[in-house]
Design goal:
TIM Barrel; 559 residues; globular; 24 strands; hydrolase activity, acting on carbon-nitrogen (but not peptide) bonds; five-stranded mixed β-sheet; 3 domains; alpha/beta; Urease, subunit C, domain 1; single chain; Amidohydrolase 3 domain-containing protein; Diaminopimelate Epimerase, Chain A, domain 1
Length: 559
């Protein structure tokens, strides 16, 4: 345990405000704790413009004090690399923050009452947008019907997305805006829509959003991320999720800054090299993200080898192994990172088969070099885990899914039965096999909450799947950078980008995942930097300042 030298307060610089958005000059941060492999007991750091210049001890900091442009007195605060949320939908996140949030609805009746109240308070909205309901936690045990949505919204166009955003309850007036929707797969005359019908109504609902409303939502999402110590977001966009205009406007807004960096993925399958031209036009890093091989467990659309425990089918497959292989081969030959959304074991096995075929055609080394991604990767067999390691596939996972829906009484157990549900999200087995993990939220599916995400991985509801807090923290910081090919970033060492956050914390610990790990690993003499106490029930750190490329993107007016 590292004893905190004094009660942490906001980090206050000696000569200027820490939220000065202009980078430049040199800054000395001192009198706290700096999480750095360069020095596990570091208490000070020097930043030169947009780069970390030095990390070390308080005594050595004295030699820098007179030569820097600013001094920030940390007063016991913790400095860490800024978090990277590796799976976000920014506009939808902002709409949930600024619009109708149904995630806290305790019952169906409560959700309908909240919807009616929101509709009454927003008479001018062209379409009523809501997000986050989850019938699995309601006493009624069922989603809203079409008639109930119509009554709550007064007959207006309305789109109310389930928590997983793979189905939605909609109003009749919204259906009327989508010709032919009743003939699409996934249409239900009274219940929520899934599959193609859901994609069509979501596109219609989002098309009704004004450019000003969209920009406000995106700003809200970026501000919210910065306030939680997040310095970078991986935006998982695509034609079935948002739109080209939506992505273009988000990247333009992020470029204006100051704010978190936005790294974009576009989820559209490629059959030939020309199909990848759109990535360049959009400014996307890769052809992946939410390129759907299947759906979600909550909406019964994740593709399984065996039927759902509470439904008479095995889910939905959107892309088969041949399509996966063709997309991967096109991307690999073009030197473009590819990726897929795959949750169920049948979907994950289709990805593995496709990667194997692509590697046979293009060469294993070329496939591994591009660090292709799989989003979610929840129901993994041991063979699939081994294949991920063999082909260098990155698993972009969301530990908050387990925190929200895991456990013997959770939604996963209801969908799959206790035995299969206990196999979900096997982070420890993936880590042991050498599968690179990167962490994210899938916001707005689960909140932007990086320390909560690290906690969820370290205290997985299935004990055998837990990883250390340190491993989870690394996957949520440096791992996100490595996923986009930036191996030098996400760590506070000289020469690294100056993306960091300052936190109000209590004591710092070196935390092992469970008692099976040798006791020495919790001893500060091991030379391992400490992290905040993430034990369930303990208060999580509070962000005081977030800095991206040397520019403060979050911080109070005076420190």
């Amino acid at each position: 345990m590292h004893a905190t030298p004094s009660s942490p307060t906001a980090a206050v610089p000696a000569t200027s405000r820490p939220d000065d958005p202009a980078p430049g000059g040199t800054v000395l941060l001192r009198g706290g704790f700096v999480y750095s492999p360069a020095d596990p007991f570091a208490t000070a750091m020097v930043v030169d413009g947009d780069t970390v210049a030095w990390v070390g001890s308080e005594g050595a900091a004295d030699s820098f004090a007179d030569g820097v442009d600013r001094v920030v007195h940390l007063d016991g605060a913790l400095v860490t690399p800024a978090f990277v949320d590796a799976h976000v939908h920014a506009t939808a996140t902002g709409l949930a923050l600024t619009g109708l949030d149904l995630s806290g609805a305790a019952s169906l009746a409560d959700a309908l009452a909240r919807t009616a109240a929101f509709a009454a308070a927003h008479p001018g909205d062209r379409v009523l947008l809501g997000q986050g309901w989850d019938e699995s936690a309601w006493p009624e045990g069922r989603p809203p019907t079409r008639a109930e949505v119509d009554a709550a919204t007064g007959g207006r166009p309305a789109y109310l997305a389930r928590a997983d955003v793979h189905s939605a309850a909609v109003s009749t007036a919204l259906l009327d805006l989508v010709p032919g929707v009743t003939d699409r797969l996934g249409h239900d005359p009274q219940g929520p829509l899934t599959r193609d019908a859901h994609h069509a109504v979501r596109a219609a609902a989002h098309a009704a959003i004004s450019p000003a409303q969209r920009a406000d939502a995106q700003r809200a999402a970026l501000r919210h991320a910065a306030a939680r110590g997040i310095g970078s977001l991986h935006e998982c966009a695509g034609p079935d999720i948002s739109s080209e205009d939506d992505l273009a406007s988000l990247l333009a807004l992020a470029a204006e800054g100051p704010g978190p960096r936005v790294h974009a993925y576009w989820a559209e399958a490629a059959a030939e090299a020309a199909d990848l031209d759109k990535l360049r036009d959009l400014g996307a890093l890769g052809a992946g993200g939410d390129l759907f091989v299947d759906g979600s467990l909550g909406s019964h659309t994740a593709a399984l080898h065996a039927p759902y425990a509470d439904a008479g089918h095995s889910g939905v497959t959107y892309l088969d192994a041949d399509t996966v292989a063709r997309h991967l081969l096109v991307c690999t030959r073009a030197g473009v990172q590819a990726g897929f959304h795959a949750i169920g074991d049948a979907a994950i096995d289709a990805v593995v088969a496709g990667v194997r075929a692509a590697a046979a055609a293009a060469g294993l080394d070329r496939v591994r070099a591009l660090r292709h991604r799989v989003e979610h990767a929840e129901l993994m067999s041991s063979q699939a885990i081994d294949a991920f390691a063999e082909f260098g596939l990155i698993a972009s996972v969301q530990p908050a899914f387990d925190a929200a829906w895991g456990g013997p009484d959770g939604m996963y157990a209801a969908r799959l039965g206790a035995e299969r549900a206990a196999a979900l999200n096997p982070f420890a087995a993936m880590t042991r096999a050498g599968v690179p993990l990167v962490l994210g939220s899938d916001s707005p599916v689960t909140p932007l909450d990086p320390w909560g995400t690290v906690r969820a991985a370290a205290f997985h509801r299935t004990r055998a799947h837990r990883i250390s807090a340190r491993a989870a923290f690394q996957a949520h910081t440096r791992g996100g950078w490595r996923a986009i090919g930036r191996d030098e970033a996400g760590v506070l060492v000289p020469g690294a980008p100056a993306d960091y956050a300052v936190w109000q914390v209590g004591d710092l610990l070196v935390q092992a995942p469970d008692a099976r790990v040798a006791n020495w690993s919790t001893d500060p003499r091991s030379g391992t930097p400490g992290l905040p106490d993430l034990t369930p029930g303990a208060a999580l750190p509070t962000a005081l300042t977030t800095v991206v490329a040397g520019r403060t993107v979050f911080g109070p007016p005076n420190g």
